[in-house]
Amino acid sequence: MRRSRPAPLTDEMLEDCLQALHRLEGQGRAADTEDVAAFARITAALTTQAMQELEARGLVQNGLAGGARLTGEGRKQALGVLRRHRLSERLFADILGLPWERVHDEAMRFEHALTPEAETRLATLLNHPETCPHGGPIPAADGSLTAPATRPLDQVAAGTRVWIQQIIEEEAPFLRYLASLGLLPQAQLRVEEVAPFGGPLLVQVADARYALGRDVAAKILVRITPAPGA
After folding, report:
1. 8 three-state secondary structure
2. Are 143 and 207 a contacting pair, CB within 8 Å?
3. What's the CA gap between 86 and 198, in Å, rounded?
4. pLDDT interval class at 4 (50, 70, 90)
5. 8-state DSSP, 42
6. Using an 8 Å Cβ cutoff, are 210 and 139 in contact?
7. Is 50 exceeded by the pLDDT of residue 175?
8. Which of 4, 121, 136, 177 is deepest in the core (most CB within 10 A)?
9. Confidence (pTM)
10. d(CA 25, CA 35)
11. Are 21 and 61 in contact (CB under 8 A)?
12. How far is CA 149 from CA 30, 143, 200, in A?
């Protein structure tokens, strides 16, 4: 019986790992193999191989306290991948009309095929959007990234009115659940109560009230002031 060969490491996998590292870094989370593998949707063994290759290319520093970290060049390349990803999400949502819970998966495939010229033309077609459909800021063409001041919803005190800026979990079932509650980017809500000992938050959205678990609320980034023009 012939053993199947392990999947080869590809440039697409390396780009997905770079994007995962940047996202985890932005969330203040340690970049462990499990989280990177989950985002890139590859095995732990391939993720370990990818991290070693990224280090060899000078894009990642491994073996540091708190997990792997992007180097300056690694961060630059990660921002390029993130820009292509979020522009692709906008293409699928705004032009092709796919629901917001599906555009992340489509963009994970499409982003790797965009050439610099296609990226520029896509940004022009979309009128240079500032955020993806989930509220994540889109890096500029020069590689800069300006993120608004936000905090996770689970860290908001009772009695506070906030506006949703970004949903950091992009799995389809989670996004469908939030949409069913009206918890979309730019939506206004008020934290009515915060249960003690890690209990749920009671939030008011329009005329409805919902109890949100802390794990759900932690994946919703909010602003204390509305976005300009909102």
Report:
1. coil
2. no
3. 33
4. low
5. -
6. no
7. yes
8. 136
9. 0.90
10. 12
11. no
12. 21, 19, 24
Q: 188 has which bridge partners?
A: 163
Q: How far apart are CA 81 and CA 75, in angstroms?
A: 10
Using alpha carbons, list the distances in angstroms from residue 142 to 68, 95, 150, 177: 25, 24, 23, 35
Give the integer Cα–Cα distance in Å for 85 and 56. 25
- What is d(CA 230, CA 225) in angstroms, rounded to the nearest whole number? 10
- The whole-number average pLDDT for the span 218-225 is 94
- DSSP β-bridge partners for residue 211: 202
Amino acid at position 111, single letter: E
Domain boundaries in the chain? 11-70, 151-223
Protein fold of 11-70: Arc Repressor Mutant, subunit A (1.10.10)
Yes or no: is domain 151-223 CATH 2.30.30.90? Answer: yes
Q: What pLDDT, in 10s, does the model give residues 70-110?
A: 999 999 999 999 999 999 999 999 999 999 999 999 999 99
Distance CA 60, CA 208 (A): 46
Tokens representing residue 145 in the block: 């990234």
Six token digits for residue 49:
């191989």
Alpha-carbon dihedral 187, 155, 147, 175, rounded to 10 degrees: -50
- From the number of C-beta atoms within 10 Å of its C-beta (0-12, 13-18, 19+), residue 156 rates as buried
Residues belonging to the chain = 230
